[in-house]
Amino acid sequence: MNSGQQQLDDVREGDLHFRVPAAPARLTSLRHALAEWAERSGLSREDREALVLASYEAMANSVEHAYAGQLQGVLDLRAVRDPQLGRVVVTVTDYGQWKQPPRNPGTRGRGLPLIRGLTPTAEITTSEQGTTVAMSWPITEPEH
């Protein structure tokens, strides 16, 4: 991990939680950490790939849209394996205010449809405190 990017202590063993500055340079190492975590998650290979891509898109959206006009914001990435519910849940949370999308985004504006297409369940919750994208996939393989 890069300096300033560390796993937080408020996680159960086997889960993942990072809080980092919301900067493009942070996303690659988060994607790699999430991919390593996903290998142990009990998801099929196809779902692991979908998890990494959808989560990366959610993180990129937070970096690009949440902190317009601000010097620095924060991004939280959480990944939890819940065998009792039979699913893996990934949440990406920012604490900014998303800027309104343009009326005609041109070739842009494909992030949320991509996320929704890659996961059986995607919920986007916005408030004055920020935005959370919660995505889940069913566990299909036994625990390693």
UniProtKB/TrEMBL annotation:
Which Pfam family is one of this chain's hits? Answer: HATPase_c_2
**Histidine kinase/HSP90-like ATPase domain location, by residue?**
20-137
A single GO molecular function term of this UniProt record = protein serine/threonine kinase activity
Q: Which UniProt keywords apply?
A: Kinase, Serine/threonine-protein kinase, Transferase
InterPro entries, per database record: Anti-sigma-factor_SerPK (IPR050267), HATPase_C_sf (IPR036890), HATPase_dom (IPR003594)
Q: What CDD domains does this protein's entry cite?
A: HATPase_RsbW-like
Q: Which domain of life is it from?
A: Bacteria
State what protein this is by name. Histidine kinase/HSP90-like ATPase domain-containing protein
